[in-house]
Every structure is written in structure tokens, then in C-alpha cells.
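hey so i finally got around to running the thing on that chain from the lab meeting. sorry it took forever, my laptop kept dying and i had to restart like 3 times. anyway pasting the input first so we r on the same page abt which one it is
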Amino acid sequence: MTYTGRSRLADFARGLTALAVFLFFLVGFPAAMYAMGGSPIPDRIPSWEEVSATLMRQDTDQRVFLATICLIGWATWCLFIVIVCAEAVNYLAGRSRPAAPRPVRPLQELVRNLVATATLTFSAVASLSASASATAATHTHTVTADAHPAVPDVGSLSPRQDTPPREPTEAEWTPLLADEPTAQPKPDHHEARTHVVKRGETLWGLADRTYGSGDQYPEIFKSSRNIDQPEGIPALTDPDVIHPGQRVRLPRPNAPGGTPSPSRPASPRAGAHTAPSEQGKQSGTRAPTPPGSTSGKATESLVQSPVVAPPAEHSNSPAPSTSIDLDDAGSPLAISLPSGSRIGLGLAAALSVAVAATRLHRRRRRPLKSDPEAAEHVPEPPIPAPVLRARKAHLDTYVVREAPVPSDPELIRKDLLTPEPDHLVVGTRDGQAVTIPLAGLSLGLSGNGAHAAARAIITELLAKAHRYRAEVIIPQPDAQALFPGDDITDLSTAHDGLTLKSSLHEAINHLETELLRRGRILETTEQPDVAALRADDPAEPLPTVLLVASIPSDNARVDALATLGCRFGLGVLVLGAWTSGTSVELATDATVTNTDGPNAARFTRASLFHLTTDDAAEMLRTIRTATGTEAPSPANTGPTPESEAPSAIVPPPRPSEGASRRPVSLEVLGDVRLSTADGPIKTGLRQRARDLLAYLALHPDGVTRDRASADLWADESPQTVISAFNTAVTNIRNVLRSTTGLSSPMYVIHSAGRYRIDPDVVDIDLWQLTGALADAQQADDDAARIRALTLVADRCAGEFATGLTQPWAEAHREFLCRTVGDALVNLARLIQEDDPERALMVLEQAITRDPYSEPLYRHVMRLQVRLDRLDAVRRTYGLLTARLDELNAEPDDETRKLASSAMRTSNRP
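ok and heres what got predicted. didnt touch it at all, straight out
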């Protein structure tokens, strides 16, 4: 994006304004203070008697007040000068600037923002010349010859026996999603690529687009600190502040001081290393090895997700259920499930989105329970335990980063912005991730662990393949060998990203047809490759295609497809040894025992992710339900945390007779918070104590320590959780006694082996809500029922414990959403005859809480038709269509007929 004249003028104006404000604070403010109040330095030091007399005397002339204001003003200005000097010293010394203490931090941020904005005065003028020079440099390096053929001749798809290896191109080491064109001449191996910063970019974003992980931004900052900037552009001194027009250096993967690229591993033709045993098998001239590389090291990549390590107690204690492996930087890298499966964070994140989509589809279809005498709600099939464990591991990365845990709708909306998967993290080696590119992939997996590793790759790609982002082609015999049973066949009927063919021949024909189609599209659009076409026209559905099959080693057609795959977005994963590409032999636990081929060094000593057949089947079922197609549950399925959700509202305990106003209030609808009469308690309460309070709020009659510990901290050893439980209870009591000044209450009562919250001293918003729901269920007439349901509408503030990621919390969150929604619909039914306007408001409140429930929208539309608001019906239908589009779904026939009937009525004269 280049500057326009208007944007440059706006930047100049903002910078000039910031410069004027900065100069006012620096010079104008003290001058004004001196003019109004004189020098802040007294002529002499007053005696204590004079000070006392002045303070005790009535300030009728406001002298003391004005002197105090002047003193505060001079003190603030002195602090401003100190911060400016400190920032200047750190800038000149080239040190990173630490954050000031919290009370002073706003002033420090003000200084930084003023200085950063003031630089726009100079950078706005220079940005045009910088952009022009960058554009000229780009055109200078654009390749004008050796273009790819637009439509390949299928008959010529033969091995590359007689074709000498070509020279490596810039595209084979330039990181994916880079801004510059990919077709460039051979780079200087001793130099990094230079990038001109554009408006809105950050170092984190550049690192994420270039290397696949925003965590690598310090490498860009380190390489760019001493780079010469264009005239008028400030030097790069703070990784948090970059300006349009600045130049930053993006280190080449495996370059001296560079960072391995997690986005795209180095191509074998661009210097990826060959194992020593392969030295004599290479024909032709090999490209030189990149500087800084050794034959014993492979190009590796880092984790895609910018996450940090879990707390120390999670990583150091035994994990009987689920364990998380960390990379060298302490970031989550792999998840080991109790069944023996080991998956990456990429699959965990994709499954988390699939769980969210499954729940929202179920909410969309669930009929309204408007009659309190209706039959009990029939629970949906439980989400499998391995999927829930993977989801929790993904959501915990938000908790560790102290970031808000996204709700299910937020996960779906974020997924809408997810691009096509062009690479996958398939394993780990030496505490780092091992990544494979999908376009141009030519990889064979053999050995006892080959099928388990292939299952992990296929499952992750299928979980990310919806909305035409990727496609997996598998011959039916291989699909049954990898995924025994009907799950893979059922998924192919509901999922656009899975294509099953009757034989290998049919699968290859399908891939060749797709290659020809893409060739014609590239020729028509005059784009060099699929990646460029996606950037130019994101609406063109050209998903990444991966063929997974057992293929003979001498299959020339597949070898040629893999050769052209880098340009056309195609890849090949072979089940067995593969002499035409890279072949990896795996032990039963998916550790690499032998590797051969161009990318052999990448997999040496690696451990690949792998899935058992049972875990893979359960994940495939979840991927299918995420499409809105409910998969049948297998027989003899054991209980899962989600199947243990409460089936009825438990009335809250009543406080003892004579109990006064309770000194403590606990909020668990929304974020978990404790408050007293003086306000919220913001310090002292640990996270585990908050989790325990939310859990005890669900059990007003109490719960044993063993049960609570098992639900709260299922992944930790029994010895650890007992201590954690006791510490959490002690923390709750100490904080509340210190805050309220009441030392006699226990707050958390221990009686008969059960722990419960004392209802005499703690008031809980959830108990108020469940009490109103219980009163509505027990009401004898409609008037009493309306009063109770009105209290429900007033007290349903938010979802249950939004920051908790444990399965029990998510199960109760769904149960409470369903129960409150039914209560609001029941209230609207009871009042719609006498007060239809209020009934509409209640239904709108229900839609706000559950924005994907199609029966709710139909109820609103019927009420709007009754009130003769046909335009409102059209708007309601449009809102429903937009909501369901987020789920890649459409309104059903009943809803469409209702909307069409209302629209036909509105069009009548």
C-alpha cells in the first residue's frame, strides 16, 4: 500500500500537531507556570511553625490550594523531563526501553507516542521517495524470462531424468506470504532480504507472515537496528514502534544470524542438505549449500501460533492424562494424549474451531422449549474426550498469555480470516518444530509408524480444509487402511475437502485434471502461480490439494505432478518408500529411524506427530459435525466430561434466618470476580482460587476435595492437586478476611468431607439466577411464573466463567445457555398476548445470548408478522442469513417459507 497525497498530508498534520504538543510540554508549560505562579524554588526554607500555621489557617484566599496545584504541576513537569531524558539515553545507547512503574507508565506512553507521531512530520515526505525506490528495486529484480508454461502437456508428465537441475530461485527461499513477487533471480546467499515498512505493519506481523510465527520478531529487530534509513526516516530503535518508509532486514532462513523459516522449508534445489549416504546418488550439479549450514543440521521451523509456555507447575509435574511438550523457547509445541497419540498445536487449534462450530450448529437446530411441561431436553451426542483435551490445550495458550479466551462465536469469526494452509507442522526435532510445505510436497512414509503419522497429517489438513481451503484425495483402499470403519466415508459425503476415489488410477486422473484446470486459469489471469492468483483474486476457489496414496516408486505420472506442484498448489504424500522424493522410515512411536532423499536431513532424529485409529475416528466425527451434519455416535462410548453436564437446575441454599446483608459477592456470570462493599478485589486472589470458586458455585450442596481436584486439575498428579486445592482454599480465606476485616467466617466451609461456599457471607449471582429459574419451575400460576422469569431476564448477565477452559466449565456454559434461552422464550410466550412489544424485547435478548438459534429467529418473525411489521421480518431474516453464513450454512426451508410469505404480503397493493 502506497501513500496517497491525502494520507501524506494527514500524516504531516498529525506529526506537526504532536511536535507542537511535545514542545509545549517541554518549554511552554514551565513558562506558563512561571508566569502564573513564579519560581517553584522558595527564597528560603520555611520553619515548621510557619508550615503548621499556614495549614491550620482557613484558606479563604485559596493561596494554599493554588500553591498545591502549582507544586503538582511542577512535579509532573519534572517527571516528564526525567522520562524524556531516560528515553533519549536508552535511544542513544541502543538499549530496549523497559516499562516504567505502573503509576508512571501512562506518562511514559505519552512521551513515546508524541515522539513517534512527531516523526511523521519528516517520514511523510520521505515515504514517497522510499516507496518509489522500493518499487524501482522490485522492477529491477523481476524476472522477465524463463516463464512457466501456462498449460502443461499431460503427455509430457515424465520423470526429470534428462533435465539438468535448475538454479535456485528467490521463490524457493523467500518466506511465504511475503509482499514482494516470488519470481526473482538467485539471491546473494550472504545478504538478507530488505523490506520497506508499509502503513499498519508491525514487526510481529512481518515475522508471522515471513516465518509463520510472530515470536520471531526479535530476529528482525536485531538484524535491522543498524541498517541505514532513507533521509528523514528515523532509525529503528524500538521493536514496538516502526514507521512507514523504514527499512527492515528479513534474515534469510539458515543465513548467518538468520532464523529458520517455519513458513516454507528450504527447497532441496535451494541448498537443502543431503544426507551423507546420498552424496553419490545426486545427478547433475547441486546448488551450493547456504552459508552457516552444516550437513548434520536440517532447516527447521518454529511453531505457527504465537504462544508462550504454560505455568511451571504444568510443565514440571507428571501429567497422567494430557501432557504438553515445549520448544526451546518454552512455547507449546506438541500435545500427548492418554491414548498414546501425539498431535501439534495446529491440529489442536483446528479441532477447537470444529468443537465451536459443532456446538453452534446444534444451537442452530435445537427446538425451543417454550412449554415448561414439555419433555426433558434430549442431550446431543457428547464431544469425544480426545477432542476436548486438544481444545483445552489450545485455549490454555490464551490463558497463559493473559489474553481473553475467545468464545465459540469469536473462534468462528477468527476462522473466517484464516488463509489456505500452505504448510503443516508435522513433528519435532531437538525442541523445534519440523514443517513440510504442501505445494510441491513429495514425501514418502514407511515403517510401523507410517500410517499413524499419515493419519495425523490428514486429520489436521481436513480440520483446516473447510471453506475450500484444502482438499485431500485418497483412493478408497488406502482410506480404509488408514481409517478403518465408516467415518472416513461418512465424512467425504459432508466435507468438501475430502475426495475418495475408487482406485489410484482414478485419484491420479483427478489430480491431473485439476492441474490442467489450474493451468488454464493461470493462463487466463496471467498469474505466475496459484499463490499469486490467490493474492490477486481471493474469491477464486483454488484449495491446496494433497494426494495421499500407496504409490509404486517408479510412477512417472505422480513424480511429474509433484514436480509441478509448487506452482499449481499440489502435493503428494506416499504411503511407503518413495525414491522419487524424500523417504522417511518411522518406528512404531513415529520416531524417524532412517531417511533418504533431497530433504532427508530435515527429518533426521525427528519425532513425527501420530494418531491412533480410535482418536482419529473421534476427530473425524467432530470434523463432520462441524459441517452441520450430525454423525452417529459409536456404541459403547464411555462417559465424557461434556456428557456429565447438569440436567436440572439445583436450587441455591437459603441463608440462615437472621443473616444480615452478606459482606462478599461472587460473580461467575462473565469473568470470575470477588467484590466487597468497597468494590472488586483486584489483588491477592490467585487464578486457581478463582477456578475453585467458580466450581464450588456450581455445587451449592458441596463437593469432595478429590472430585473437585480431579475436575479442576485433571492433567496433574494426585499429590500435586491435593496441595493445590488446599492452597486455593487458604488463599480464598486469607484474601476475604483481609479485605472484609471479618476473621470469624470460614467463607469456604468444610463439613462431612465436603467443601461448599458459605451462603451466609457470600452472595453469588449464579445462585440468584438459578433461584429465579427454580421459582419459575415451581410457580403455581402464570403471574408468579412471569415474575420469576422476569428476574431471570434481569440476572442473565453473561456466560458462565468466560475465562475457564476446563470441559466441566464449558459443559455447564452450554447447559446454562440452553436453560436461560428456554426461560426467555417461555417468558415471551406468556406475555406476548398482553404485551407483544415487551415480548419482542425479550426475544431479542435471547438472540443476543444465542445468535445462531434459527427457531428463535422464526419466533421473532412470527411475532413481527402478527404486528404487521413486514419490513422488520426482512431485516430479521437478513440478520439470520448473515449469522448462518459464518457457519457456512443457510436457513432451512421452514424459515425461508416464513420469510417469503411475509415478503409476498408486503408487496401486495
